[in-house]
Amino acid sequence: MVHETPNRVRLRCTLLYRPELDLDYVKAILSSFKGVTQVRLNPRAASITVHYDGRSGVKELLVSTLDNLPQEAYLPRVQENDQMDLLNVTALGAFALVSPFLPRPLAKGLSWLAAAPTLMKGVETLLSKGVKVEVLDAAAVGMSLARADYFTANAIVALLTLGRYLEYTSDKKSVDLLTSLLKPQVEKVWVEIDGAEVSMAADQLEIGSLVIVGSGEMIPVDGRVEEGEASLNQSSITGEAAPRHVAPGDAVLSGAVVQEGRIKIKAGQVGNQTSMARVNRFLENSLRHKSEPERRTEELADKLVPFSLGLGLAEYAFTRDFRRAASVLTVDYSCALKLAGPVGVRTSMYNASQSGVMIKGAQALESMAGVDTIVFDKTGTLTTGDLKVTQVVPFNRLSEDRLLAMAAGAEEHYTHPVAKAVVKRAEEKGLPLPAMSQVDFIVAHGISAYVDGIRVLVGSHHFICEDEGVDTSQADLMASKFRQEGKSILYVARKGVLEGLVVMEDEVRPEAPMVLKNLKEQGLKKIVVLTGDHMETARHLADNLGEVDQIHWELKPEDKAEIVKGLQAQGTKLAFVGDGVNDAPALVSADVGICMPLGADLARESAQVLLMHDDLRGLAVAREIAVRSQSTLNHCFRATLALNTAVLALASMGVLSPLTSAIMHNTSTILTLGYATTRSMAKTKMAEKN
Ligand SMILES: Nc1ncnc2c1ncn2[C@@H]1O[C@H](COP(=O)(O)OP(=O)(O)OP(=O)(O)O)[C@@H](O)[C@H]1O
Ligand SMILES: [Zn+2]
Fold it and tell me: Family per UniProt (predicted)?
């Protein structure tokens, strides 16, 4: 801290000198703190000036934030070998081929020049990280050069470059592709214009627009809260899981998801400038995040390096034969071990995405292969979620149409399947919807709103009867009859009196029975169904599906998560498949969260696997690909050990020249990679049926 007045601090922060620091990001994060009104960064002076309202704690918060900037604050590392294109590889290869025919002094000079980067990298690695594979490479090349075997030295350099080129391109391609598929998008937004809420396309927002965001929705702009309070899930921006509470005056970042509450935001930045761009980067990082088996494999690969080096040195000590030592040094386990993992994983992810399943990273793939139980949410997951109103039953003076219009007016802004069904039916009938104010959505319960100052409630039996104390007894018999037919029921009350029922029908997804059967065939032990709906409705569904081992009903969102945790406590590894806001806690608690394509933003954020087609078959595909990907990794692991050990043995017996051993080593790596790619790309049984 260099300077301070009651409402302003100036900090010196040498981090600003670092070119890879994303200044916009730092600014956005600091501006989002409560009380902060202005943030100015001056990278050349390494100074940050923050204006704030003088409240206590802000300074400390600023300092601790700067001390612990998340990984996302840095621009993606510029690839070490950006210029590493195919041309480079070809040139090195061609040079290796002609080098034996060049005049000796010229060959010598050029070879040392060509090998310089490899040698330097080796020394640098040795000094900074210890004995790693780069050191082996440098030693092998160096020994060949020392022996004046320029052809071998150049060939090894060319092969190494080829290997790195393959690694770089496969990595970049798969990451680019997956990022573009994963990018979260907000399409429709609610905007307040002259006091009325209007729906418009997100890309038409302007600076200063008043955007309204309710629970379960993603914030489409960077800006400030004008009205309302909410708790936000910012995990996709900051990586921080704890919810953040915001009130008027607070800055909010696009990409954050409203967990609870409803806020009006004044847009400060729209479109591409928003921090949504940062979400992208987060995704990219999570793609590079390795799974446990991958990390173990890499560790092993690293541990084997000193072994190869030791063997090479011992070889030299005993035989005084540089040639043999160099042959040994060209062989290492880490190439194949380190490449096959990520390539296999990403190819599997790519394959899955071709069948409409987005698997977000290696960890998700691994967990997906390990589950023995799948827990399904009912509405929108096992059913189409495309509910249809079949009956409207008024109990008092209201006509059917007025009852329906009242319910639809309250539901107008919501995306819950029951809300959509009611609104759609009212639209079909061309009913004018009454204007509502103070509309409140209570997750997994229903809606409370006011028409002309009169309180209207629309929701479940539990909400209307137990929470709000409305007498619903006159509807009980009729409701039970409807439920036994598999129908769902909304209760509508006004002024504390039950006005009627809206009866809805949901269809079982046609593919659901087949998918459940396939999953059981794939070795899953248990299938569980959870629902916020009534018992009788849930029973009816389970009877129609078959293969269901357990049902739980009338659950609140936290209950769903509790049941998931309970099952886990019994030692089950489980996947949860859901679609709604109310599923987010369960999606997070499960070993793997799987989300349907039309799910709420919050659910899509929380899930590790996203089905992109509105079809449950993706689930069977995901499971098959995941299981296969794990076994592919195992195969590659064993093949790498076996092949390289064989080459190493031959090399140390002096049977192989350094060049042959380098070629064999690289061929085995490419074969392993080829195997990993082909097997991960193979079609799944489920996809073949399509
Ligand atoms: N927007 C809404 N309007 C009216 N009632 C609602 C609304 N959202 C939820 N409810 C009521 O709360 C109940 C529970 O909702 P929740 O979203 O938890 O589960 P669900 O949609 O019935 O089923 P599932 O848990 O299988 O998805 C619903 O059955 C419905 O009666
Ligand atoms: Zn309740």
Answer: Belongs to the cation transport ATPase (P-type) (TC 3.A.3) family. Type IB subfamily.
